[in-house]
Structure formats: C-alpha cells, structure tokens
Write a structure and sequence with these properties.
mainly alpha, Helix Hairpins, 7 helices, coiled coil, alpha-1,4-glucan glucosyltransferase (ADP-glucose donor) activity, EC 2.4.1.21, starch synthase
C-alpha cells in the first residue's frame, strides 16, 4: 500500500510536469513569433530611420537652396513655408512612431529574457521528468516484487493453515490414543484386581472344601469361639467397671490433693504473715523458688533475673518476702513486674 501511494504521487507529479512542458512548448512557439515580430519591427525601424534621414537631408537641401535663392524666390515664400510645415509635421510623426517602436522593442526584449528563463525551467523540468520516470520504474519493479512476495506469503499462509489443521488432527488422535492407553491401563489394573480376587476365592474355596470335610469340627470350633466371646464380653464389662472405679478414685485423689495443696498454701500464707522473716518455714521459700522456676519456664523472666531472684530466696532476703506479700492479691503480670523491680534495683 505504501509503494502504491508513492506511485500515485509520482504519477500525479509526472502529469503536472507534462502539463508544464506543454505550457513551455506553447511559450516557446510564442517566443518564436515574438522574435519574428521583433525582426520585422527592426526592419521597419531601419526603413523609417532611412526615410527620416532622407527627409531631413531633403529639408536641409531645400533650406540651403532657399537661402541661396532667397532673392529669386521671394514670390514663392508662401509655398515654401507650407511645404516646410508639412515636412516638419511628417518628421515629428515619424519620430513619435520611432519612439513607440523602441518601446515595443524593449518590451519584446524583456519578454525574450523571460522566455530564456522559461527555457531553463523547461530543461530543469525535463530532467525532473526523467528522474521521476526512472523512480517510477523502480517503484513499479518494487511493486511487482512485493506483489510476488504477497502471493508467496498467501501461499505460505495456506500451507501454515493446512499444517495447523494437521497438528490439531494429530493432537486429537494423540488425546484419543492417550485416553485409550489410560483405559487399557485401568482395565489391566482391574484385571489384576480381579485375578487377585479370583485367587483369594480359589483359596477360600479350597479352605471351604477342607472345612466342609470337617464340619463337625467346625461346629465345635464355633461353639468354643462363642463361649470364648461371651467370656471376653463379661471380662470386658468387668474391666470397664474397674476402669470407671479407678477413674473416680483418681479424680477423688486429685481433688483431695488440690484441697490439701490449697490448705497448705493458706497455712503458709498465714505463717508468712504471722512469723518473722528468719523464722519463715522452708515451704515458703520453696514455694517462691517454684514460682520463679515457673516464670522462667514460661519465659516471663530472663535467666539472669531468675538467677538473681533465686539468690535472694536462698539468702532469705526480706525484700523478696515483702514483694511476695504485696503481690499476693494481684494478677501474675503485676507480680512479675514487682519482682523484676527487685532485680533492676539491685543491678543499679
């Protein structure tokens, strides 16, 4: 499409150049006519100049004769004056015509110079015409080559389309073959499973045949099994009852232990309030150690803080006893912060 557009533009410019060349040819013909007219006017001007010179010479000769023969020609004075006036008028008329002819010649010269410029432009246009013609031929050859490429491309597109159709067909065949292979594998697996079941059934059938031969023994064996099952059920029931009783005993013992622990805690708290620091029982200090170890395991305090608090407990420091007494009615977070204040104050 781009090449076709360029060809159309060049064809338009070529048509414009042809029109300009036609106009230049008409101008050339007109110039030739003007040159002929100019030559004609030059000839006429030369003839009129000769006539004017002859008239002027005649006038001067007549004037000289008149001057010489003035005494003799006094009678013809009026006739001479009239002829002189007529010659003067004719001379002035010739001069005016001569001036107009000169003006026409100048105008023709200007037109001739313009025509020369036109000839130069015509030569330039001819060169442009030849260049455009050659470029047009190149573009036409390129257009032909591009059309051939387009035809090749269209054939390639058709071949590509056929190949894609073949690919789709092969893909469909491959999918069908894959499905069939999967189905074959599934059928093979099913056959293997069926073969295993058949083998098991054959084994069961053989066992059944053996059992059938010893039906009495089988009957006795079934009775023994049923008796054993009954005994097992009774034993299982007794075991369940024993387990439930053990669970109840365990729950009761846990509750009793919790109650005892609670009472011990209350007694230790009362003793901690009533007794002096040095006379606090070991259970109080061991309880503090357990609290500190629990906080360390729960990562609520660092190892260094736990170590420092244990040292205060072993030393039976009164500050840790006071901190415990103050934080008994508080939550765990406030109690931890209260104990950590002891470590921060000691570090300072």
């Amino acid at each position: 499409d781009k090449l076709q557009g360029e060809i159309n533009v060049l064809e338009m410019r070529l048509a414009e150049n042809d029109a300009k060349m036609k106009v230049a040819a008409q101008e050339k013909i007109r110039v030739e006519l003007l040159e002929a007219q100019l030559e004609k006017l030059r000839n006429e001007l030369d003839q009129r100049g000769a006539t004017e010179r002859s008239v002027f010479d005649l006038y001067e000769s007549q004037n000289n004769v008149f001057n010489k023969e003035a005494p003799l020609l006094q009678n013809n004075t009026l006739l001479q004056n009239s002829s002189v006036h007529s010659l003067s008028d004719e001379l002035s008329l010739l001069r005016s015509e001569n001036m107009s002819l000169k003006n026409d010649i100048e105008a023709l010269r200007e037109e001739l110079s313009n025509v020369k410029n036109t000839d130069e432009r015509v030569a330039i246009l001819v060169k442009q015409h030849s260049l455009m013609k050659s470029s047009l031929q190149d573009l036409e050859s390129k257009l032909i080559a591009s059309e051939e490429d387009v035809s090749k491309l269209s054939s390639l597109k058709v071949e590509c389309k056929d190949l894609w159709e073949k690919v789709y067909t092969l893909q469909a065949l491959l999918d069908k073959a894959t499905k069939r292979a999967d189905q074959a594998i599934l059928v093979l697996q099913q056959n293997q499973d069926l073969r295993k079941k058949v083998d098991k059934l054959e084994e069961s059938l053989e066992e059944a045949v053996v059992y059938k031969l010893s039906s009495e023994k089988l009957q006795q064996y079934n009775e023994l099994i049923q008796q054993k099952m009954k005994l097992l059920e009774e034993h299982l029931q007794r075991s369940d009852e024993e387990i439930h009783s053990y669970v109840r005993l365990y729950q009761d013992s846990v509750q009793e232990f919790q109650d005892t622990l609670k009472s011990l805690k209350e007694e230790s708290n009362k003793r901690a309030l009533d007794e002096p620091i040095d006379d606090m029982p070991w259970e109080f200090w061991s309880h503090l150690l357990l609290i500190i170890d629990g906080w360390l395991l729960e990562k609520k305090i660092s190892t260094d803080d736990a170590k420092h608090l244990r040292e205060m407990v072993w030393k039976k420091d009164g500050r840790i006893c006071d901190a415990y007494m103050e934080s008994r009615e508080k939550n765990e977070r406030e109690a931890v912060s209260r104990f950590l204040k002891l470590t921060s104050s000691s570090k300072r």
